[in-house]
Amino acid sequence: MKRVIFFISVVVAICLSSCVEENVSYDEGLELTFSCDTLIMDTLFAEQQSATGRFMIYNENKNALNIASIRMGGGSASYFRFNVDGRIAGKGEVLKDIMIKGHDSLFVFVEMTPPTTSGEPYIVLFDSLLFECNNKVKDVKLMAVGSDANVFNSKVYTSDAVIDSLRPALVFNYIYVAEGAKLTITEGAQIYMHGGANIIVDGELECRGTFEHPIVIRGDRFDCINDVDETPYDQMPNQWGGIYLQNAQSHNIIENTHVRGAGVGILLIGANRSEPVLELRNSIVHNSGAYGVYSQQGSLVVENSEISNCGESCIAQLGGTLKMAHTTIANYYRYASRKNASVRILNYVMQNGVRLTFPVTSAVIENSIIFGGNREELELGEDTTSLADYNVLLSHTLIKGKQVESDRFVECRWARSQNERNGIDTVFVNTSINNIAETGYFNFRLDSLSYARDCGAESVSALYPFDLDGKERNVDGKPDLGAYER
C-alpha cells in the first residue's frame, strides 16, 4: 500500500511540475536581441513572390520574456509578410503574446511580393518589423529592390525580334525562335531564366554584348543557399535549362555574354552535310550542370573566352570543326563527381553497340589553357578503324595530363603534377569557392607564378590584342595563355 501511495505521489508531483510555466519577467531592463538589424532581400521581380528570408530573435536572459506584439510597421499597406514560431500573420495582422524562454531563440520568416514599378526600372521598398516587449519597442528593418521585368512565358517568335536592355527579361518555360526568324539580344540585356526554362532556336541567335555592357543570361534566384559559404544560387549549376541551337544551317553569334548556372550551357546541333556556325567570343560560360558547350557536327569558334566548372565537359566536339584561341578552360566542378575530360574531341561514338562516325574536319587550339581537377583534362578520341577525318592540332597550350609525344602538339606545356617528380601546379588565382573576400568565387585569372605566363605565340595574340578584362596582351611581347593577361 505504501508503494502505491508513493508512486501516486511521484506522478502527481511530476504532473504539477510540468504544468508550472517558466517564470516570465516584465523587467523593463531585459531586452530582446536579433541576429541582424536589417534584412535585405535583394532584387525581386514585380508581382513574383520572393524566396523566404529569415532572422532570429534571441532572449539572452535567464527568465522568459513575453513579446506583447509583433507587427509590420507599414500595416496593411506593407508588401512584406511574416510568421514567427509557426504563427502566420495575415495582411496587417498583429501577433500577440509570444513567449520566448530564457536563453532561447525563435525564427522569424519574411516574404514579399513587390508591385509593378510604374515605368521605372527599379524601386526600393522599405518596412520594419516592430517587436514590443516589456513596454519597449525594437525593430528589424526590411529592404528589397523591386524590378519591373518583361515576362516571357512560352514565348514564340516566328519573325525577327529584339530583346533589349530597357528592362530585365524574366523567362518561364521557354523562348522559341522558329525557323526563318532571328532573335537579337542587345548589349546590356539581363535575361533571368526561371527553373527549367530554355532558349530554343530553330532560327538564328545573335547576342551582341559589349565589353562595357555585357549580356547576362542566368537563373532568376537572388538568394543564397543555407551552407557555410552562403553561396548565392547565382553561383549554382542546374538553375535553368540551356540554350539550344538546333538549325543545321544557322549562323549564330554570342559576343560579350555571360551564361551561368544552366543545366547545359550551349548546344549546337548539325547534320551530316550541314554544319551550323557558332561564334563565341569574349564570353564566359560558367557552372553548367552538364556541358559548357556541346557541338555535334557543328562549326564552333571560341575566342578570348572562359568556359569553366561543368559537370561533364567544358567543350565536347563530336565531328565538325573547332577553332579555339586564347580561351581558358578551367573545370573545378564541385557539386558531383566528374568522369569526363574538360575538352573532348571525338570522331565517333558507340550507341547501342553500333559505332557512329562524325568526321572532325579541323580542330585547332592555340594560346589556350585546358586545366581542371582531374588528372587528364584532354581526350582525343579517334576512330582508327574507319576513314573518318580526324585533323587535330594544339599549339602553345597548357594541358592538364600526361605528356604525349605527337605531331598534334606544338610548343605545348603539360601539367607539372603529371610530368615532373614532386611537381606542383600553379595556374589560377583561386580554384575553389573559398577565399571569397580576397579573390571572389573561382577566380581563373592567372596566379603570379602561373605556368601559363609569357609563353603564348605572338602571331596568335596579335589577332586578339585585348584580353577578357580589356587588358592589352602584347605590351611586353610575352603574351600569356588563356583568356586573361596577368
Task: Describe it.
The protein is mainly beta and 486 residues long. The chain has two domains: 33-146, Sandwich (Immunoglobulin-like); 149-419, Pectate Lyase C-like (3 Solenoid). Helix content is 6%, strand content 46%. It is built from four helices and 40 strands. The strands form five sheets. It has a 26-stranded parallel β-sheet that branches. It has a five-stranded antiparallel β-sheet with strand order 1-3-8-5-6, with no helix packed on it. Strands 2-10-9-4-7 form a five-stranded mixed β-sheet, with no helix packed on it. The model is unreliable at 1-20 (pLDDT under 50).
CATH topology of the largest domain: Pectate Lyase C-like
Beta-strand percentage? Answer: over 45%
Please tell me the total number of domains.
2
CATH hierarchy: architecture of the largest domain: 3 Solenoid
Radius of gyration: 29 Å
List the uncertain runs. 1-20
Mean pLDDT over the full residue set = 90
- State the CATH class of the largest domain: Mainly Beta
Tell me the number of strands: 40
Q: Report the helical percentage.
A: under 10%
> Span from first to last CA?
91 Å
**Major sheet: size, sense and barrel closure?**
26 strands, parallel
Number of helices: 4
Quickly give the structural class. Answer: mainly beta
- The global form is elongated
Characteristics of this structure?
five-stranded antiparallel sheet, 2 domains, disordered N terminus, Pectate Lyase C-like, 486 residues, Immunoglobulin-like, 26-stranded parallel sheet, 46% strand, 6% helix, 4 helices, mainly beta
